[in-house]
Amino acid sequence: MSQKVWIEVAMNGAWTRALQPNIPVTAEEISREAIDCVNAGAAIIHAHSLDPDTGKQNSDADICHAFIEGIRNEVDAIVYPSSIDIPMSDDAQVRNATSNELCRRGVLEWGILDPGSCNFSTRETAANLFGDDGNIYANGPGVQFRQRF
What is the pTM of this model? Predict the structure, then answer.
């Protein structure tokens, strides 16, 4: 009996080109590379909206909308954005503002629910990029259970 497998591609992340020189930053770059990934077999695309000038994550609903539509106009794939940039707010509405806006626009079919906290990195470069916490993705019970789309 064969098992079906879904391949998910994380297109970029919040590291900037300073650490990952070849990541797609603009909506057009994200769309183009995601389309290539889907044509190679990926079924799910996850991407962060990044400021085109700085490369830092910005949770911009317009950028997310542009890459979601850019991908869907060419290939059949599930596409969803990141929830928010780091450091994060403890307010669930702030964390989910981008996803809520994309739902309002009718373009989001999948969303994020992060069930716990993570220490992604404590390296000096991460601390310089993300602030003094060194990129702690704090997601306590109070936030987890208030997430609503």
Answer: 0.80
